[in-house]
Amino acid sequence: MISNDLSIFNELESSVRSYIRSFPAVFTKAKGYKMWDAEGKEYIDFFSGAGALNYGHNESKMKKKLVEYILSDGITHSLDMATQAKAEFLEKFNNVILKPRKMNYRVMFPGPTGTNTVESALKLARKVTGRTNVISFTNGFHGMTIGSLSVTGNAEKRKGAGIPLEHVVTMPYDSFVNDQFDTLEYLERFLEDNGSGVDTPAAMILETVQGEGGINTARMEWLERIDAICKKRNILLIIDDVQAGVGRTGTFFSFEETKVKPDIICLSKSISGYGLPLALTLIKPELDRWSPGEHNGTFRGNNPAFITATEALSYWEDPAFEKDINRKADNITAFLTAAVEKYPELEGEVRGRGFMQGIESKVDGLSGKIAAAAFERGLIMETAGVNDQVFKLFPPLTIDDEGLEKGFAIIEDSIKSLIS
Ligand code: PMP
Fold first, then answer.
1. 3.30.420.10, 3.90.870.10, 3.40.50.620, 3.40.640.10: which CATH number matches 63-317?
2. Strand pairing category for 34-37 and 27-31
């Protein structure tokens, strides 16, 4: 196949496919922030594999390490046997990420993807506390398996699972009602009130910036208050950093600017650095009370992913990397803020932080149209939110200024084409 002919996908692939509909091209190659389709058209990638490609496509240093490893007959699959690749990853993760942040956690490999880490976190919280209830938040997204879906605050996404799991209570996320409504006063009242009929939960699970839910951003003080509420009642705090972590918000963990040290942290997407499946569940040592084999899975040891993940951590050894992400993130904010002002027809509001930003348009369907117009012009960008009301700028963190500017120009052109 050498064209953008989608017939084999339409004939043979399940109707469940989705991105193929938003991005109707057959892709053949990618490097850095660029992708190419079968007809040679170049695209700027402002999507980054939904956050799995924070270092861009085929990053050169990781590619070299991976090729060398494969050519040396390094172990590919090992379940949870000890391997050199895993040892090197664990050591570097501890030295480069955990120790400098004074974070003392044990590392669990729960299975290959984001939803596996969420499942393991929910199971562990229930086991350790002996309680069943879990508090989730409006518009949260945590994955597509039934446990993760049950804590996902989106009726449309939950529909396919039939009746959601019991014992999950959804509470309003920061600013869900409006900026005056104190969601945490409500939450506290709910927890202390026997009239709520809900026993003390095992855990609360939340994203600090809700990726799929529409780039809703919790304020730092809101996160610190949630942490305090959890501590007061011995409720475990699970931060799902699957999408917001690994630098997306400008720091390695999305909660680094707060005093919060979650009990359990979920990581996946960009942790392998190269788009290979890998997930981690970080557990405070005193909570690591799994019995051997109690949570397992065939693909717990993706050694090629350990190789690229170890190399990816080198970025975090140099403080200039984080500084550069934040400098570029300020440019994204400046572009979006100017766009909202310049094009009032958008009825837009800038959302998010770091490399996790977007515009929510109050005009029904406009964000989706802007993303589609951008695709035609050679920019890949996703929408988010229950009504796809947000278009989301998610470039690789490694993108250069030229790539960002080109992307901004395409977005502006797409907006103009739709409002005038
Ligand atoms: N948690 C969050 C916050 C996510 O954004 C996602 C994926 N979009 C998941 C969990 C699930 O990850 P995966 O698709 O790898 O199972």
1. 3.40.640.10
2. antiparallel
Strand partners of residue 30: 35
- Give dist(CA 389, CA 27) in Å, integer: 26
* Ligand 1: centre distance to CA 244 (Å): 10
Note the pTM of the prediction, 2 decimals: 0.97
Measured torsion, CA atoms of residues 130, 282, 271, 394, in degrees rounded to the nearest 10: 70
Is residue 115 within 6 Å of ligand 1 at its C-beta?
A: yes
The SS3 of residue 210 is strand
Pocket test for ligand 1, best of 53, 154, 269, 382 (most atoms within 8 A of CB): 269
234 sits in the region (left: phi over 0; alpha: psi -120 to 50; else beta) called left
143 CB within 6 A, ligand 1: yes
Residue ranges of domains in the chain: 1-46, 63-317
Does the ipTM exceed 0.95? yes
Indicate whether residue 398 lines ligand 1 (CB < 6 A): no
Residue whose CA is at the smallest distance from ligand 1 atom 15: 114
Collapsed DSSP state (helix, strand, coil) of residue 167: coil
Ligand 1 pocket residue status of 260, Cβ below 6 Å: no
pLDDT in tens, the chain (420 residues): 579 999 999 999 999 899 989 999 999 999 999 999 999 999 999 999 999 999 999 999 999 999 999 999 999 999 999 999 999 999 999 999 999 999 999 999 999 999 999 999 999 999 999 999 999 999 999 999 999 999 998 888 888 777 677 789 999 999 999 888 999 999 999 999 777 888 999 999 999 999 999 999 999 999 999 999 999 999 999 999 999 999 999 999 999 999 999 999 999 999 999 999 999 999 999 999 999 999 999 999 899 999 999 999 999 999 999 999 999 999 999 999 999 999 999 999 999 999 999 999 999 999 999 999 999 999 999 999 999 999 999 999 999 999 999 999 999 999 999 997
Asked if residue 243 has its Cβ within 6 Å of ligand 1, the reply is yes
Cα(398) to ligand 1 centroid in Å equals 22
CA of 142 to the centre of ligand 1 (A): 5
Q: Whose CA is nearest to atom 1 of ligand 1?
A: 142
